[in-house]
Amino acid sequence: MEATHLSRRSALGLGAAAALGLAAGQLGNATPSAAAIARPTGTGYVRYEDLYSSGNDLQTVINKVTGNRVLTFPEGVFTIPSNFRYGYKDGVRLGNRSGGAGCRGLVGSGRNTIFRMASSSQPRWTGGASPYMLIHAIASSADPMITVELRNFQIQGTSLGHEYNGLRLSRANGVVDNVYINGITGYDSVPPGETGGISIFQCTSVRVTNTEVDGRRAGVRVSSSPVMVNNSSGITFQDCYFHHSLTGGGGIAWFESRDSTVTRVRSEYIGSGTGKLAGYCFNHEQSTRITYNDPVMICDRKTTGGTLHMSLNSDAARGGTDCVLTVKNPKWDGTSVGSGKFVVETWTMGNQAQKSAPRVYGPTGAALPFTWLHPA
Question: Which of 4, 13, 118, 123 has its CB surrounded by the most CB atoms within 10 Å?
Answer without folding.
Answer: 4
